[in-house]
Amino acid sequence: MNSERMKERLDALIQLGRHNELRGAMMMLNEVDIAEYMAELKKEHLLMVFRILPKDISADVFAYLDDEKKQELIELIGDGEIRALIDDMFLDDAVDFLEEMPASVVRRILQSTDEHTRNLINQFLRYPENSAGSIMTIEYCEFHQGITARQALDNLKRTGIDKETIYTLYIIDQSRRLCGTLALRRLIMAPDDALVETIMDTTVISVKTLDDQETVADTVRKYDLLTIPVVDNEERLVGIITADDVMDVIEEENTEDFEKMAALLPSDDEYLKTSAFQLAKNRMPWLIVLMLSAILTGAIITHFEGLLAGAVGLTAFIPMLMGTGGNCGAQASTLVIRGLALGEVQFKDTLKVLWREFHVGLMVGLALAGLTFLRLMFLSQSGLTVSLVVSISLYCTVVFSKAIGCTLPLFAKRINLDPALMASPLITTLVDICSLLIFFMIASQWML
Amino acid sequence: MNSERMKERLDALIQLGRHNELRGAMMMLNEVDIAEYMAELKKEHLLMVFRILPKDISADVFAYLDDEKKQELIELIGDGEIRALIDDMFLDDAVDFLEEMPASVVRRILQSTDEHTRNLINQFLRYPENSAGSIMTIEYCEFHQGITARQALDNLKRTGIDKETIYTLYIIDQSRRLCGTLALRRLIMAPDDALVETIMDTTVISVKTLDDQETVADTVRKYDLLTIPVVDNEERLVGIITADDVMDVIEEENTEDFEKMAALLPSDDEYLKTSAFQLAKNRMPWLIVLMLSAILTGAIITHFEGLLAGAVGLTAFIPMLMGTGGNCGAQASTLVIRGLALGEVQFKDTLKVLWREFHVGLMVGLALAGLTFLRLMFLSQSGLTVSLVVSISLYCTVVFSKAIGCTLPLFAKRINLDPALMASPLITTLVDICSLLIFFMIASQWML
């Protein structure tokens, strides 16, 4: 769809006050696109457009607005409208929304809703952040195991309209324990009088309310599911999580890993919506730790000052050695961290990984050191001793960096730390120290 | 499920040769778990277990085996079995599988299938790698717009059993152009005699066969879809892509970004399944480029050799300056790269981003430089001149690194390069050069 043209057309209808046409035009659009359009509207038009939307669409559109616009709208509309809005939203969307609002807004909204909804919302708000409970929804279809296919289908036609998904039905026993799932396709194809318990699938994959959302995403991805049921400690069904929410979790977890690997504290907000002060605060802690740990490299250099004073030329190779070592270590750690995140590598593979990285280091080191030797010997004419010292140091640095880079994330995993924390900046700092020590030790052997 | 115990029980049944019980036990498991179990079986048991599985399950299990095991099995079974297997598999799984097999195996498999399947597979194999066409499936339900809800439902019961999803139905016109989608829930709730064209949703979101899989993932995520239709250049429906495949694409694209950001060439295989030689090959190119670019930092140091000879102590600060600069640049670039990937940041935001990073740099720089000044002045007693030179250099380095780190990915995007290529190693190298120049220029002003 040509979104520029669409925007112009809608703008024109607003200007001309042609509300009926505007409603018609809006209804041709996807809710996401309507929300995107509304995000750029001025306050006075925002409310008008929102009220023009058919009721069943406006709640969906509202869920897709960003937090700022949501708050703006809530402040503009009356209590009755708020109540209708929250009732029309899926419970998980409503909870997500409330989690981001200031306390005063939350209070006003909860006062406007009826007691049942308020209790449900309060219960959901109590689940820990990033737990399965906090992202699940209760709009699913459940049936008791004793009923027939026909009864289930009739029931579904009556009650299914408000559910987030009706394509997987959940079968529970007397004590509400989840005992099977039934794909709608299977139900449709089944004879009318078949008991659901005879056609249901009993190999149920589920998660617990307190499981981390990362576990949820891993499980859904592993079993290629479109929805996953959430049960409490007594195996009673309490909610479901749908694939679209899982995709958001996957991207969120990946963003967190990217951030950790770049020595950032994870942030919850989009980059452009985070204040410069908050950005600075998220970056400071690791920068300070890493900067202070560089005191060690400084101390090593100071220790070998005598050597450097006699051969100032050696200083010129320090950045190349440290840089290459850092890059080699980052390569190894990134692959291992990623492998761990995707479940392709485990702690028990440590020796296998180390052996592999040792081999890779030998090969890569040979190529890089060889190239450096040739360059120094024949291009820069640095002399045999310097060329040998630098290229042998480089070789050892590469092999060491690969070993450090692959081992640290595995050990972090072992002691239940996030492997992503052991990524390039931390490894670079360690590798800096090793490469300087290697360089100076080899240099002082040969050149003093 | 306790997978260790499950494994032991299955092993025992295999040892005892109790094939019927074994089949029963297998049927209690999810296909993914069966495939996981089979992955560790010896050759002689592999074939036996595979043949014991009910036909409708074995094709699914096969799709979840890893490439090595698939090939092993294909080499063990007869042509008739191959034909049945390929017929039972979803076309997208069959194509994925064939793409990974050696040519000789592919030839044998294609010879075993009937002409219709062979033609379809060949057509799919022709779509470029990572295009929407290459990951779509043809097992969807389509209806012409003229029929009624009752007809559609009856039709579905007859033909839906083999489809990957029947929850979204696709409505086409005479020329096979996609004109709407119909959620199964809507069809079920509709009166029998309603025409599908009156109840279908005409705001169809679709992708083209040649669209990149990243576009597919972005669209599905944006609109929270469970399936997305794929159309050709004439808007004719040719396939669909389901959410589980999109999740794999998301993880694949993220892995690629992680790899690029760590100066690795992207690889297709899991870490432990890639040979050491291949790993070395993927790492070499960028390492060599970055290593050679470090010649510049070396040249800068050589140029200022006179300065360093007079004040060898300054050398000790080089790693700290370069390291902190590199980390600052990596932080900024990571946030911008991630923002670009998630569509939260665009090229038109360049000035906004730069302004923001400038502010962040001022704040972060103040904290780091202040800390360093205090440390040098009072803890190491390095004297006022050195303390000032180092901390002012640090301040400028931080501000510069942030600016470079945020700008490069945006410009890469502008000229249609992958922003992830502009990540930490490349930025570190640039930052190294800047920080050295800043340091030496300030030092030679004040200390000569």
Number of strands of chain A: 6
Q: Give me the Rg of chain A, rounded.
A: 30 Å
Number of helices of chain A: 22
Beta-strand content bin of chain A: 5-15%
Main sheet specs of chain A: 3 strands, mixed
Residue-averaged pLDDT of chain A: 86
Regarding quaternary structure, what we see is homodimer
Termini gap of chain A: 73 Å
Biggest interface, chains and residues, is: A-B, 112 and 110 residues
Low-confidence stretches of chain A: none
Shape of chain A: elongated
User: What is the share of helical residues of chain A?
Assistant: 55-70%
* H-E order of chain A: HHHHHHHHHHHEHEEHHEHEEHHHHHHH
Helix and strand content put the structural class of chain A at mainly alpha
Q: In which order are the strands of the major sheet of chain A placed?
A: 1-2-3
State the gist of this model.
Two copies of one chain form a homodimer. The first copy, chain A, is mainly alpha-helical. Helices cover 67% and strands 6% of the residues of chain A.
